[in-house]
């Protein structure tokens, strides 16, 4: 075993999108940085989450869009080529080869160290490489923990023994299982149920609660439930799975209503912080917990330590991790230069959008695109609010996009200030409507001003005019 010592301005644990962005920002700000990664540079998003899952879903979505247009529908004469879809998925993950990402890191002037990292007291990290050799890293200014999150496996008797799929296996499987059981009706469970059902699996989705997408507006969960069932997915609500076992090649799940059998079971019931094995105990923190951070992403009580992205548990989305990384990187650079760090809403040094202006898309059929607060969240916060809903299919652009277009737009309005608190779109291709809604929510654009943001005709964006008219009554 060999050992070495290296010093950098910033040491970043985890080379996923969040860690890459922290390192990039600080290097562009004139500091030196090293990324430490034990698996693939590029992280979950590139290899096991956003990119492969959307590649699995896109073919099905494209076929549905064509079939919804008379004349064009006649061109769809066969079924989806499953093998080609999986090959296309593999192309987006580069067959799980990170050499392209490594090239970007090196080109950006960021050092890269392969191995497992553990904190070892203040501003110190010990990295154990693949050969067992150790490198001790010292940070002049900051250590940024960007280790992300891992799939949570619920405490169901026997479940670990059946070797369940997590989203990693759910997005990287080489073939469709004949029967797939899915635990969890959040965005991952719903997306992967759609994906594998379309690729030939007989899918059963088991949701412990009484509706799908429980954090979204009820209209979203209801629409996705109807669509899943229409596409042949067996969705069962209010199911509490109590035990799991394997019988020969079958997975058997026992629940309060009986048993269900499949060939594989996918667990999609949430995430947990990857802080168990990174040495947080050496700096007085409890392993396994999310890092408690302020709005500059600095861990409370440890001014040199930052927790950025999923690891702080605030909003576990790739784009929000990258957003936090940009803000944390700017704060680290400012502090290193001795400049004032502005800790206030919408400061260049703080992450505040994740409180009330987070955009997200569920790439199901229909899509669910949302930003800001739901009506339930506004109510929980005691905010004055009014809910306005309108069918998207009523506008000419939607009718042109798809025959019989079905969709819903829901806005949550602060009636006293007349600004939008939240927006949800449910329908085909509504993800492309989302950024306009995000700008309106983040900018607190007054409804009186939105009247002058004239939507082009005939586009689906005309739904904005209908919503404003409904608000004004």
TrEMBL record:
Binds 1 FAD per subunit. Residues 8-324 form the FAD/NAD(P)-binding domain. Keywords: FAD, Flavoprotein, NAD, Nucleotide-binding. The keyword NAD applies. FAD binds at residues 54, 147-149, 310. Pfam families: Pyr_redox_2 (PF07992), Pyr_redox_dim (PF02852). Belongs to the class-I pyridine nucleotide-disulfide oxidoreductase family. This is Dihydrolipoamide dehydrogenase. It comes from Geodermatophilus dictyosporus.
């Amino acid at each position: 075993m060999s050992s070495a010592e290296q010093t950098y301005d910033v040491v970043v644990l985890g080379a996923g999108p969040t860690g890459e962005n922290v390192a990039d920002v600080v290097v562009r700000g004139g500091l030196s940085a090293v990324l430490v990664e034990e698996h693939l540079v590029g992280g979950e998003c590139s290899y096991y989450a956003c990119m492969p899952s959307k590649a699995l879903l896109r073919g099905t979505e494209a076929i549905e869009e064509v079939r919804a247009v008379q004349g064009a529908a006649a061109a769809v004469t066969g079924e989806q080529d499953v093998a080609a879809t999986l090959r296309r998925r593999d192309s987006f993950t580069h067959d799980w080869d990170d050499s392209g990402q490594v090239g970007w890191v090196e080109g950006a002037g960021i050092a890269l160290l392969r191995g497992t990292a553990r904190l070892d007291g203040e501003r110190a990290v010990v990295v154990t490489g693949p050969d067992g050799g150790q490198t001790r890293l010292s940070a002049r200014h900051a250590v940024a923990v960007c280790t992300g999150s891992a799939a949570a496996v619920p405490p169901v008797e026997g479940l670990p023994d059946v070797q369940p799929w997590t989203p990693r296996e759910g997005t990287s499987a080489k073939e469709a299982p004949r029967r797939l059981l899915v635990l969890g009706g959040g965005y991952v469970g719903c997306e992967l149920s759609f994906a594998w059902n379309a690729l030939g699996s007989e899918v059963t989705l088991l949701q412990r609660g009484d509706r799908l997408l429980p954090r979204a507006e009820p209209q979203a969960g209801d629409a996705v439930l109807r669509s899943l069932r229409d596409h042949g997915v067996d969705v069962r609500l209010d199911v509490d799975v109590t035990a799991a076992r394997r019988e020969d090649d079958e997975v058997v799940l026992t629940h309060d209503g009986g048993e269900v059998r499949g060939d594989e079971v996918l667990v999609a019931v949430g995430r947990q912080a990857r802080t168990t094995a990174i040495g947080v105990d050496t700096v007085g923190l409890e392993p396994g917990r999310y890092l408690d951070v302020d709005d500059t992403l600095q861990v409370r009580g440890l001014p040199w330590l930052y927790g950025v992205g999923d690891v702080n548990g605030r909003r576990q989305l790739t784009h929000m991790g990258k957003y936090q990384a940009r803000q944390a990187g700017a704060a680290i650079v400012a502090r290193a230069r001795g400049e004032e760090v502005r800790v206030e809403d919408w400061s260049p040094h703080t992450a505040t959008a994740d409180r009330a202006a987070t955009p997200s898309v569920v790439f199901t059929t229909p899509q669910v695109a949302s930003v800001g607060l739901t009506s339930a969240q506004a109510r929980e916060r005691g905010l004055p609010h009014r809910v306005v809903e309108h069918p998207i299919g009523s506008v000419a652009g939607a009718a042109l996009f798809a025959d019989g277009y079905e969709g819903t737009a829901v806005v949550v309005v602060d009636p006293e200030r007349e600004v939008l608190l939240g927006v949800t779109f449910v329908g085909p291709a509504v993800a492309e409507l989302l950024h306009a809604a995000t700008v309106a929510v983040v900018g607190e654009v007054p409804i009186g001003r939105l009247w002058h943001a004239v939507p082009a005709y005939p586009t689906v964006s005309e739904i904005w005019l209908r919503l404003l008219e409904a608000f004004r009554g």
